[in-house]
Each structure stands twice: as C-alpha cells, then as structure tokens.
Write the structure tokens for this entry.
Amino acid sequence: MLRFLTAGESHGKCLTGILEGLPSGLAIDTEFINGQLHRRQLGFGRGRRMKIETDRIEITSGVRHGKTLGSPISFILENKDWENWQISMSTEAVPEGAEIRSVTRPRPGHVDLAGALKHHIHDVRDVLERASARETAARVAGGSFCRLLLLHFGIRVGSHVLAVSSARVPAEGENLSLEAILAISPESPLRCAHPDTEKEMIQRIERAAKEGDTLGGIAEVVASPVPPGLGSHIQWDQKLDGRLAQALMSIPAVKAVEIGDGVAVAQRSGSHVHDEIFYDAASRRFFHKTNNAGGLEAGITNGADLRTRIFIKPIPTLRKSLMSVDLVSKKEAVAAFERSDTCVVPAAGVVAEAMLSMVLAQAFLEKFGADSIAELEVNFANYQKLLNSF
C-alpha cells in the first residue's frame, strides 16, 4: 500500500513528507524532483513569496546511492522565510508580550472561521498555517517520486490551463493530446496552449491585481499511456475515479473535479456519450475512437488516456479585504490580509499532476505489486502478454 503524509506549517521551519510503499531499486533523480518543485512556483499572477522560497528537496531516508531501499522515504523542504517567523511560529513558549502576529479577523472562504470554531481558538494562525497552500510543495515532492515510478514504465503526466476566470480557450484548444500539452513552451507564463487566450488571461490577472482581487480558473491534467485494469469496480472506496476525485478535491481552492467530459455528458443522450469499442487486429488490442469517459469506466482504467479537470476558485486572501467579524471583540471588521497570489491556476495544475501521479502509482502497485523494481517489471510484462493473448 502506497501511503503519503505531510507535516509542517506555512511559516514553520520546514515541510516534511513521508512516502511509504515504493519498491526497492527505483532510480531517484533529485534534480527531476527539484524541477517539479520549481514548476509549482511559476505562473503569471504568483505572489512575492515565490521570490523568497527556492524549493529544493533534502531526502533524509529511504534512498541509498540514488535508488530506493523499499523502506519509507522521508524528506524535508526548508522554509527560507522561517528566519522572520521564529518567534511567531516557535514550538516553545514565548515571553508574554512577544509579537506573535496573531490573526483574529477571519478571511471569508478560508479555513479561518471554521477552524476557529472547530478548535475553540481566537488566534486563527493556529489553523491557517497548516491550511496554507504552502503545504502543496510537499505534495509535489512526494508526487514526483511516484512520477518517477510511472515514468519507469513509460507513463507520463502533464497539465495545461484551460481558463482563467471567464477567459477560456476555444474548443480546438481543449482535449489536447499529452504530446501537445508537454510541447507547450516552458516560457509560457500560464502554460496555456492558445496564445491569444493566454494574452487575455494575463490582462485579466493584471486588472485583478490592480484592484486587489483574485481569479480562479480551470486546469486539465492528462496521463498517458495508462494500462487498462487499474482500479476496481468491487467496492465504492476502491473505484479509481472516486479515489482520484478525492485526491484532486483535497488541493486547496479546488471546488470541483471533472473526469473526461463529466459535466457535458449530463446534457447529452447516451448515444452521444458512451465511447464505442473497436478492435485492432495488428496490435491485438481493443480501443476507443473517442474518450468521453476520460479513460475510466466503472472505476477501472480502460486503456485510454486518463483525463481530468480541476476547477479552482479565486483564492480567499484579498488585498481588497471582504467584511468579517473580529473573533475577540465580536465587532464588524475587514478581514485580515497577508501576502497573496492573484492567480494560482498553473500552480494548481502542477499540484494536480502530483496528486494524480500518486493515485495512479498506488493503483499500479496494487495491480502489479512487488517488493523490487525488477519483480515489478516482470509482473507488468506478464500482464502485457496476457492482454495480447486475450
């Protein structure tokens, strides 16, 4: 069973991750992981903290001489802004009267009020530090280990931006192949495949920044080639679409998840929704000419590309603060403000790549489970032979 945990606060000393369940013998490229961490920090509309943090992973266990041991992998990501928060985020008691940067004016749309009520606290920093999207850096690192496993078996993952606010790519810019997604220039400020739409997106972000506001949008994440048979139809909690939706919905600011043409299919008839089945005698494989299902049917991968979309709300930390109530005085007040991004849609796409990789790697290991990469290779090869003999 592949399991992943993170620990750490946004302005604490570091983020920590523990990944358990990878087989031994998998080659680990730390520069690949650092490259994914860098991608998370990119994107037009990101805030000042991206100029402070330069995330680089420090692996502390589970890897020896560049290969996994089969034991739990642990790693840390240093928070470089920690030096400015050592009193506010000290793990030890601090002198009375020390400046601890308490927050008592909850921000609408954030964890602040719900967390304060749940934990019976008036300084919401106790909950907002953990709920911060800074934690997603650890997810990207953990997901990168899983990506390396998938890449070992030829499975790649990529994402692109479909919309920022109401600026959305035209129909021909949607449902791109993974090759087309991966071919988007790394210089693209929003990782959008349609230059004219990207210009409009940038203009909207610039306008929102001037107004002290924020914008959300849509990112699409695709994995390919994905073998058929991952996941299960047997129990509700084993269905891969359900597991994938939960993982993607756990990303901060994500409010909806779509698999394939999920929303649109509710408005079509069955004859225009279900992907017809064909057979290629040369390759001895079944295939579909369409992929409305997004590569998943009844909780099981069907051999088509795994295609998902996440819908990201505008983040709730606004310079143009919304109205709130002070938790101590109970008087009307403007919500608290700290450093903020204007738009995080491209970064959310990178986090979604990591979460999809984690869920897919977990299902892959469940299907072809082994203690070592060598054994996993044999199991996967035997399955491919079995498919060819069907």
Remarks:
- Residues 345-368 form the longest helix (24 residues).
- Residues 218 and 311 are 5 Å apart (CA to CA).
